[in-house]
Design a protein that fits this description.
heterodimer; A: about 625 residues; mainly beta; Neuraminidase; 3 domains; four-stranded mixed beta sheet; four-stranded antiparallel beta sheet; B: alpha+beta; 4 strands
């Protein structure tokens, strides 16, 4: 028998321990002499949870790849028989609201992408819809109707080359209809051989596969598939588990990943891979079974799929990946509690192991300062004076706070103070040149930008160079009191100034421009103060009803999208770190809290697999 | 089957809940150390391991109400000046 050297022309390397892995190790084999195992880096499949969707997706349409998915319509929950019009966009990390559909429908056909989407047919009032709508990344517009009104069919292809196959046309309840869309109108195509509804499928007008579903009589579950090669239909390999309402992703008839759906009995968590002839049940199973949502023609990657929905709350997002990486979802975890519970604090520090919580109130104004080392807080030298709602920025060894007031007597301060990691140095009492309260500072101690907050002139901007404050070059277009911000003196971001507004302002060193809107209006949240302006993380705060929030969202330089929520709702909290490793501490939950939470963003790690045991 | 279980447990800080916990089950903290936990094996195990005392939803809501009402009473007793400097009267918290 040939050995490894005969096949590959080289011997297996022997290591005392696994090497530091990267993608170049994919397919390579080595022997770990310490564990006595033959190791390699090979692709493996896994499902993981991601940020919950902003609405309950039941019998919804969906299309697009994992990093740019579009979900729309469906029943909602509680069920809305005529369908809901909600649309949401997923960017691989979180969700943002999209434009509402003109006509809400459930079991709607889907094709295209997040910026060129297509929704067609569905169950509506009257029961089967022929309507077609196109999505341009912002809004839906109605187009020409299908020839055969129906729902529960299979959508594939793109906005300019879409295909709608099978479905419930009531009657026929299990249709063989095929219609093709050219970007303007639908024309009849070659009919399927087997009528079905709530089937699944993926592909394009030139190569597609229709998978499983319900067939006559009486909603019999089928495992049968049909493949389309651009000119005719032929039978494909049967799936291992017959089910209806599953989802599928893949580029053509020869590549598909099929998952979820309703089997007998119950909702399935099974995943199957297709190689063009045979389906193989994957070891990867969904953590929550999902049925009856679509993944339309834009979901063309069979190694990276997404689905949202599933009992109990129908907002769970799950991602499927087949890669050499172990992908770990973002999440908040509890951190060490502050020594002094407090709110309206000043937080700074660019890492989660070098964070500072300065001042605040509980309710008297506090000058207490605590430092966090990644697991616990320790009391350090007090700030020169108590400050409530101070601004703060910088790092542990070069921090800056200022402004604020000392409750309960409102008398906003015109001073600031520097921290060197041990001692505080106070500025002259009028250094800022005006009262500053609920302000926002970004940057570092020697190059800080201050948006002054609530005191008049409340749109003023100040610069600090490490020794003195000067007027900034341009005022904000609106007051940004109680806001948050991150970035630098020349490239900054300020947001979250009002529960009733979603304002984001971008700063380029000379002027302010509007940024993407927050996903929901709020203020008194906190931020990852060390993050660049193109990678912000904003968490907590309160909404227009003065209800504290757990909400977390991230900014990518263009738009905000949701991230996993904190466990404890709060406002007036402090923040530190960057967008992938962040810290939330203190705040107000109806009373002052000492709780800390640590955020870890999505991580991907090349992972070795053991091939044999020695 | 109920979607959530409720319990009372003191947040002891680091390690009280981990990122892995958050990935495995729903977890949400409320006043009075009330925690709403996804009703699955991982969620139930977490509450037990934290020494949590399981409550019915009504019992959990009553604990929250008592805490919030105490905070509201404290706020109501504040001077107008203090109220002006506070985050506002604590709002009612209703378990979903």
């Amino acid at each position: 028998m040939a050995d490894y050297a005969d096949i590959y022309g080289k011997r297996v390397k022997v290591f005392d321990s696994d090497p530091t892995l990267d993608s170049s190790y994919e397919g390579q084999v080595w022997y770990n002499s310490a564990t006595g195992t033959l190791k390699s880096v090979v692709a493996f499949a896994a499902w993981r949870s991601s940020t919950n969707a902003p609405f309950k997706a039941v019998a919804a349409g969906a299309t697009g790849p994992q990093t740019a998915n579009l979900v729309f319509g469906g029943y909602g929950n509680p069920a809305t028989p005529s369908g809901i019009t909600t649309t949401a966009e997923y960017n691989g990390l979180g969700w943002t609201a999209g434009g509402a559909m003109g006509d809400g429908r459930n079991y709607i056909g889907s094709a295209g992408t997040q910026t060129a989407g297509l929704g067609f047919g569905g169950l509506d009032s009257p029961p089967r819809s022929a309507k077609t709508e196109e999505y341009n990344g912002t809004s839906w517009s109605e187009q020409n109707d299908l020839s055969n009104a129906r729902g529960q069919g299979v959508g594939t292809g793109s906005q300019t080359a879409g295909m709608y196959t099978t479905g419930d046309a009531g009657p026929p309840d299990y249709s063989v209809y095929v219609e093709n869309y050219d970007g303007t109108s639908w024309t009849n195509g070659t009919s399927n051989s087997l009528g079905r509804r709530v089937g699944s499928g993926n592909g394009s007008q030139t190569s597609a596969i229709i998978i499983a579903g319900h067939i006559n009589p009486s909603d019999t579950l089928t495992a049968l598939t049909e493949e389309w090669n651009g000119s005719s239909w032929s039978s494909g390999g049967s799936v291992n588990t017959a089910r209806k309402g599953g989802m599928a992703a893949g580029a053509n008839a020869d590549s598909s990943v099929f998952f979820g759906g309703t089997a007998a009995p119950g909702v399935s968590t099974a995943t199957e891979d297709y190689d063009g002839s045979t389906w193989a049940t994957s070891s990867a199973t969904m953590s929550v079974g999902v049925t009856d949502n679509q993944q339309g023609g834009g979901s063309t990657i069979n190694t990276a799929a997404i689905v949202v929905g599933g009992s109990p709350d129908y907002t769970q997002t799950q991602e499927y990946n087949k890669s050499i990486n172990t992908i770990t979802a973002a999440a908040w975890a509890s951190g060490g509690n502050l020594g002094t519970a407090r709110r309206q604090v000043g937080g700074f520090g660019h890492t989660t192991t070098t964070a500072v919580c300065a001042c605040g109130q509980n309710p008297p104004g506090l000058s207490n300062v605590e430092e966090y080392n990644g697991s616990s807080w320790s009391e350090v030298n007090n700030a020169p004076m108590a400050r409530v709602k101070p601004f703060a920025c910088g790092v542990l060894t070069a921090g800056l706070i200022g402004g604020g007031e000392e409750g309960p007597s409102p008398a906003s301060y015109q001073s600031s103070a520097e921290y060197d990691g041990t001692n505080w140095t106070a500025s002259p009492s009028s250094a800022l040149g005006q009262n500053v309260n609920s302000g926002t500072a970004l940057g570092i101690q020697t190059a800080a930008l201050l948006v002054v907050g609530s005191e008049s002139p409340n749109t003023a901007v100040k610069y600090y160079d490490g020794s003195s404050w000067t007027a900034g070059p341009a005022a904000t277009p609106t007051s940004m009191a109680s806001a948050s911000g991150n970035g630098t003196q020349t490239n900054g971001l300020v947001y979250g100034n009002s529960p009733s507004q979603t304002t984001t302002l971008e700063w380029d060193g000379s002027s302010w421009t509007s940024g993407g809107a927050l996903t929901s209006g709020r203020d008194r949240g906190a931020e990852a103060v060390g993050a660049p302006s193109t990678a912000a993380l904003y968490f907590g705060g309160n909404n227009p009803s003065s209800t504290e929030l757990t909400a977390t969202e991230g900014y990518d330089g263009t738009s905000w999208s949701s991230r996993p929520n904190m466990a404890t709702a709060r406002r007036g909290l402090g923040g530190a770190g960057v967008n992938t490793l962040s810290l939330a501490f203190g705040g107000y939950t109806g009373s002052d809290t000492a709780a800390t939470e640590e955020f870890t963003g999505v991580t991907e790690t090349v992972t070795s697999k053991t091939l044999t045991t020695g | 089957m109920a979607h959530f279980i409720y319990g009372v447990a003191e947040n002891t800080g680091k390690g009280f809940f981990t990122a892995e916990d958050r990935r495995k089950f729903f977890l949400r903290g409320y006043p009075a150390n009330v925690w709403m936990v996804g009703n699955n094996v991982d969620g139930a195990m977490w509450l037990a391991e934290k020494g949590g005392r399981e409550k019915t939803k009504a019992e959990a809501q009553a604990l929250i109400d008592a805490e919030v009402q105490a905070n509201q009473a404290a706020w109501d007793a504040m001077s107008d000046e203090d109220k002006a400097n506070s985050p506002g009267r604590p709002t009612d918290v209703i378990l979903p």
